[in-house]
């Protein structure tokens, strides 16, 4: 509600005079509807970081950040409407937090020359910058996630999983189907048996699938879910007494929202992570001083430090760092979307830089190039500790299996290039 | 007994339990349609609103807390007390009665005599309003609902069936609770409609509005009563589904599960809602078990609608619905 009032006030201000800021970033959020519980913390983290930069630093390179929020309700059509409504306002970057919306925006944003950044979601083969000039998915993608999950399973089994069965329980949508090809390839490579269990969205009823899991007893269940599907899956796993530590969710199935309804029974549940999952970072002191204490939080201010708040924060951090790089390369603070793309293609996040930002150890180091829009593809495993009420990282960041993934990305992206008559770049 | 037969029996039992949960949602639709001819699009959102209110009361949350904090710059979130589940349920029922009264006073009484499609459109508006109201009152974060119902594998059934067949059946304690609650609910509704003055009045209005009015039955009062009962049924459905998945705004989507049940069972029959729910529950689970794996799975949603469509072809009024004949 606080956000709504702020938005209303901002709207009136904008209507009354010229824009107050030069670096415009739309936030295609979802604070209403069935996926609001996940959309709110992400958007809060995203917006609070931009507010922090404006309040503490006066913007980036002297230019204040102008955030335009547009409600999508996690609905693809509304997401496209939001894009069309905001792109003419000088939008530098879109981070739509929806694979469905991303797929629709890829051709549009490519034609309009506006970068899209899909952190850990979207079209995986967009990692190939030679084909997808305007789309980025660093620091890791869905296929990296599947590969890191299998690596963890390999580690737990001394490198031999040839006698194991891994089931993929997935949201029956473009998002959920993303890791299938990767897991098929990895199954061939490591010899494990791979089974698939689709769940029809939204996923409130999963009894059939969990009865099958109870009967077949796969050694591991990899969960690619979103929204209500996740807590139901974890509840049903607990109901059929499936071992929680043999269940590994993608990072979109690894938030407090997902484990809360199962209570203590979710203890030990694992999920992939591409960044830290708690609030033990100096940047939170600044957020408290410049955002919370001033009453400028995007939402109710009750989401700070949650997994999805951190993800929104991380998305915003990477956007701001790309803006800095773009300003440096262009020699001007008032950058264009094309210059923003250049900045993103030259982005390098090092531990030293993360420490300067007040985020030591928050995420792995990675580098983006013209050819590689997906970063290094590192992921870690987090585990839910019910007693402490937090996820904890239980592994170091692991490199995904590039030997398997790179050819798949090449194949899929080149097919896209051929279908759309795209000339390869970065040659 | 062959494993496949045992699995099929287990799937059937779980399908029956799932069917009861579908029927709980469908019942609310039937009650309102039967009494007023309105297809209440807001029924799913009513379940969500009721569950949100229940959790909010149980946790001592201040309604409209975010709004109050935004306007007055305060930082209040809770009253600092917890309310026992039973008392919270009673208070939530009172809220749903108040809601029923408000719907009738502010919306329905102004639309008496309008075409059914107008009333349907009004309920669409009502659904979106109620969703926004729920958001403002209680917030959009996911909430855990625990009214003390047991959850998880029923050990007795598991062990008994294991001793008998060498394979323990999985039955969820929550589903068993839902079955008992649904049985009590239906029995209560039948007793109410058969043996109370208000129940008979409700049936009279359902049969013929004009005739009921002519013998002095107040239509407004009956509509408030009907929406109150539907609100109570929504609360029960909200508790059962909310205990499974947590209370979040996706709870409103449970209405999608009720539609094929209504199409199959008929929009005007309480037994139809129950039987329809059971048929859909068992049908979709058995289809997924036997055929799903061969065609890529995730068949349950479309199979339920397909089954309902097949019934519609042969019995447009549903298995238990009343055949409406209009003479010109």
TrEMBL record, chain A:
Domain Leucine-binding protein span(s) in chain numbering: 25-385
Alphabetical keyword list: Signal
Membrane-spanning ranges: none
Pfam family, one: Peripla_BP_6
Leader peptide range in chain numbering: 1-21
Domain of life: Bacteria
UniProt record similarity statement: Belongs to the leucine-binding protein family.
Protein name listed in UniProt: Branched-chain amino acid ABC transporter
Originating organism: Oceaniovalibus guishaninsula JLT2003
UniProtKB/TrEMBL annotation, chain B:
GO cellular component: plasma membrane
Main location: membrane
Similarity-based family: Belongs to the binding-protein-dependent transport system permease family. LivHM subfamily.
Superkingdom of origin: Bacteria
Topology of this chain in the membrane: Multi-pass membrane protein
Compartment list: Cell membrane
Keywords: Amino-acid transport, Cell membrane, Membrane, Transmembrane, Transmembrane helix, Transport
Membrane spanning stretches: 12-33, 45-64, 84-107, 119-140, 176-196, 217-241, 261-282, 294-314
One Pfam family linked to the record: BPD_transp_2
GO molecular function: transmembrane transporter activity
Keyword Transmembrane helix part of the UniProt annotation: yes
Keyword Transmembrane helix belongs to the record: yes
One annotated GO biological process: amino acid transport
Record protein name field: Inner-membrane translocator
